[in-house]
Amino acid sequence: MGVIAKIKEDKPFIFNITNEVASNFAANGLIAIGASPAMSHTPREAKDYGEIADAVVLNLGTLTEDRGEAMLKAGKAANENGIPVILDPIAVGGTDFRTNIINEILTTVKLAAIRANAGEIAVLAGTLDEAKGPDSIIQENDPEIAKTVAKKYDTVVISTGEVDVVTDGERIALCKNGHEMLQNITASGCLLSSFVGPFVSVVDDFYEAGIYAVTSYGIAAELAMEKAAGPGTFIPALLDALYFLTDEKVEKYKQVQEL
Fold first, then answer.
1. Domain that holds residue 21
2. CA-based radius of gyration for the chain
3. Residue 66 burial by CB count (10 A; 0-12/13-18/19+): exposed, middle or buried?
4. Measured between alpha carbons, how far is residue 238 from residues 3, 21, 65, 242 in Å?
5. Alpha carbon 32 to chain centroid distance?
6. What is the pLDDT of residues 101-148, one digit of tens each?
7. Which segments are annotated as binding site for substrate?
8. Residue 68 within a domain
9. Residues in binding site
10. Domains in the chain: how many in total?
């Protein structure tokens, strides 16, 4: 059975602590691919959800003290139960408050994957001082920088840019699917971070899961732009493309180069 077919059959439960801007879009995207999302940010139920989810996504978008506490609780509970955790360290280095919480997650929670733009990955690698926001993408998405972060935190890194990089610190893949229209809507990166959740829940090799997730998402964007006229029509077209995405379409359209 193919990966997407497996997701649609299993309907993995993906617990998201994300931001107001992304919450609705990420939930709809997860439902479209066949997953079952939960969106919550209260510390009071983070541990419970972290224990029963099939994957946990921690998105640092609109960060508060409560969300930071909830992320740590959910991440640690997931670790104790063998559940994969994905981190989206939005704007790492931008403020001390944000960076301190990200560093605490990185040092106390074992991560299945870090999904961030190339600028944020460069901050984690120590080659850039700060990433001011989700649009802070440096010109070159250097695979070696992503590889450094993967080794540093013993995780899979998905570094997004014009060409996306997926690496586990040893293996490296360049994923070339996608469309620039993704840069013209809000929360497209946040949805991708959540989107990784169902893939790591059904594929044991998180590196392969990351490649499949990024490639599938990029192909859906390409197919969406065949029908969309601009950003306003692109969003529903993207959700439609995710809903109708199949393993056969991924195999047909994928553009992946392994180094």
1. 3-176+184-214
2. 16
3. middle
4. 19, 17, 33, 6
5. 16
6. 999 999 999 999 999 999 999 999 988 765 555 445 555 789 999 999
7. 39, 187
8. yes
9. 39, 115, 160, 187
10. 1
